[in-house]
Design a protein that fits this description.
The protein is an all-beta fold and 114 residues long. It has no helices and ten strands. A hairpin with a 5-residue loop joins strand 4 and strand 5.
Length: 114
């Protein structure tokens, strides 16, 4: 059974940082590209970042470019999202997913507020 479990969310002040993790199991993690997607309150889903199976190629939404960094550790079956210089506009539930599939985690809440 495919499982994706996000962690690392929380409440942070503007300008702060968080690192999200996505622990994967039930499939060959190293064979799949992965993505982070978020949903802000009252808004639709927004793709945030993606990474290829080997970790050597990454991409970002313009809204997070230069502030967020995606990476993965295939030995640990885990993907990460380092988020720096957070703003209130980053407040959302963050989901990890297997790219090109309908497998999602349960999400982790990130709230940026003073």
């Amino acid at each position: 059974e495919v499982q994706l479990v996000e962690s690392g969310g929380g409440l942070v002040q503007p300008g702060g940082s968080l690192r999200l993790s996505c622990a994967a199991s039930g499939f060959t993690f190293s064979s799949y590209a992965m993505s982070w997607v978020r949903q802000a309150p009252g808004k639709g889903l927004e793709w945030v970042s993606g990474i290829n199976s080997g970790g050597g190629s990454t991409s970002y939404a313009d809204s997070v470019k230069g502030r967020f960094t995606i990476n993965r550790d295939n030995a640990k079956n885990t993907m990460y999202l380092q988020m720096n210089n957070l703003t209130p506009d980053d407040t959302a539930v963050y989901y990890c997913k297997i790219a090109g599939t309908n497998y999602w985690g349960q999400g982790t809440q990130v709230t940026v507020s003073s």
